[in-house]
Fold each of these.
Amino acid sequence: MIKMTAQMREVLAKALDDGVPCLIGTVSKAGRPQISPKGSVAVFDEQTLCFWERSHRGVQANIMANPRVVVYFRNAMRAKELPWRGAALRFHGNAQIVDRGPQLERAWELTVPAEKEKDPKKKGVAVLIDIDLIEELSGTVVMQRE
C-alpha cells in the first residue's frame, strides 16, 4: 500500500532549499530517456506526487507519449536523520498533465515560492504522478501498491 509519510512530505518540500531538487526520469516516444531537475516536487496526497511544469519542453512531451516516470530524491547532507539507505528514494508511477481545474490549483498551492517566481503569469501545468512503488537506492521496497 502506498501511504506517503509526513517525513517524505517534509523532505520533498525542503529539497530545493536544501540544494537537492528531485530528478524526474521520463522516456520519449522514440525510447530516449531524459532526466530533468524539478524544484517543485511535492506530496499531493498520500499516493500522489506533483510538480509544476513551466518549460513545456521534453518532460511534458515525454509524459504525453509515455506516462511511466521515476522521481529520484537524495539528500546526503541529511543522511543521519533520514531512515532510507543513502538518504535516497525512487518514486515510480504514472504521470498525467493537468492544465485546468482544482488539481491544477492545488499543485500551484504546493509549489515552492522560488518556482512560482519563475512563472509569474502561471502559464505552467501541473503534473500529477500516481505512485505505485517507492524504493530505497538499494532497491529495497519501502512501499508498493497492492
Amino acid sequence: MFMNRIVCGLLSFSLLWVACQQPQNEHVITDTPSNGTIHISVDESFQPVIEQQIKVYESSYPNAHIIAKYEPEVDCFKDLMSDSTRMIIVARGLNKQEDSFYLNKLGFKPLFGIMAFDGVAIIVNQNNPDSVFTLNDLKAILSGQKNIPVVMDGTNATSTVRYLQDTILHGAPFGKNVMATGGSDSVISVIKQRNDAIGFVGISWVGNPNEPKQMANLKKIRLGLVECTACGEKDVFVKPSQASITYGQYPLTRPIYYILKENAVALGTGFKNFMTLERGQLIFRSGGLAPAKMDLVNRKSQIEE
C-alpha cells in the first residue's frame, strides 16, 4: 500500500510537470456550434435585427448563449483586439493593416463577409414640412451651410457618423448644427419631440412592420425621401425599404459585416452560418433589410389546371 502511494504520487507529479512544460494556448476554444457561451460586439445601429437573430438562434439551440454588447463601431473593433470577444458585427470589413495585425497576433486572419445591406434612414417629425432631400441638400445640411438641426447617434466613432462623413461630406467635418445623442433610440425620441430637426438611424430601427414599437413610432415620425441617383428618370425620390435597397435605388445603403476571430468550428462559426443561411437571411428580410447571401424575392406564378 505504501509503495503504491509513492508510485501514484510520482506519476501525478510527472504528469503535472509535463503539463507545465507545454506551451499554453491563450485561444483554446471549448464551445461548439450548438453549445457554450460567447461574447460578441455589435454596432448599435443594427441592434434590433441582431437581437432577433440571437433570440431565434438561442431558441433553436438552448445550450448556446450569445452575449451581445451594443456600442459604437470603433468600440467593436477595440473589443475584437481582446481575447474575450470573438465576433463583431459592423458596417465594414478588415483592411490590410488590420489583417496583418491579427495574422501576427493570432497566427491566422479573421474571417469576414457581408450578411445583409442596411439603409441609413432619414427621419423627421410628422409635423415637419420638409421630408424630401437631394444629396446636395444633405451635404449642405450636414456641413452646416443650411442651419437645420441634425440629430445623430454620436459625435464620432459610430458607423452612421463615419458613413455620412465619408459618403456625403467626403471627409469634411460636420457643421455646428449637428448634435449627438446616446444612440439610435434617443435619436428617435428627439425627433418625436422636434418638428425642426432631422435624424439618421439604421433602417432596422424604423423599418420592421412586425415590431409594434416601431409602428407606434411611425405615427409620430416619418421617413424622408432621398434622390435616386441610379434611377433612369430624373427627380425620382425614394424611401429606404427592402426593395429600394435591393435594387440599388436608395443611395444611403451600407453593408452589414460579420468579423469572426475563430480558427475552429465553434459557437461563433455556428452563429455566423445561421445568419448567412436561409433562416438568418429571412430574419434580415423581416427586419426591413436586404439579404446579401440568398435571393428571397417572392415571385408570382400561375398554375394551370
Amino acid sequence: MNTLFDGVEPMVYESGISVPYNWWAGDTASRFFAGLRDERKIWGTRCASCGTVRVPPRKACPICFHSHSDWVEVSGQGVVMTFTVARRQLAAMKQSVPVIFGLIRLDGADTSILHYIGDVFPEAVRIGMRVKAKFSETRKGEIRDIAYFMPCE
C-alpha cells in the first residue's frame, strides 16, 4: 500500500515549551512559605496520631490519615540522607551545572526535604554530612527562599 509519505524520511525536531501557570498553595503550604519569607524559620507539621514530624509540612498524615494539628519549628541544620549531581545543563535549571540535589533530614523532622546543596564541590558531598540552610536575601514566599543548604564545617 502506497501512502503520501512513502520514501520520505521521518523528521524529528527538538524544541522546548514554556507552560507558566499559577495555583493556590493551600493553607498548609502558605503557612510554610510565609515562615520562610517572613521569619527565616522552617516549620513542619506533627501528626496528632503517630507523632511524625513532616517537612515540608502536610495537611494530613499519608500513613495514618490523621490531621496534622501541631506546627513545629525544626532546625535549619540537618543531615544529607542522599544526593545526586546533575552535570547536564537543562533549560529548567536556573543554576549552571554541576548542580547538587540532596534529600536533607532537618534536626527535629522525621522526613527529608529535597533541595540544592551549595558552597561545596560535588566530590566533597557525603551521605551523613551536616548541612545548614542558607536563606536568600530577597525572599518571596517560595521554596527558593532557602537558597541552598551548605556544609556546617
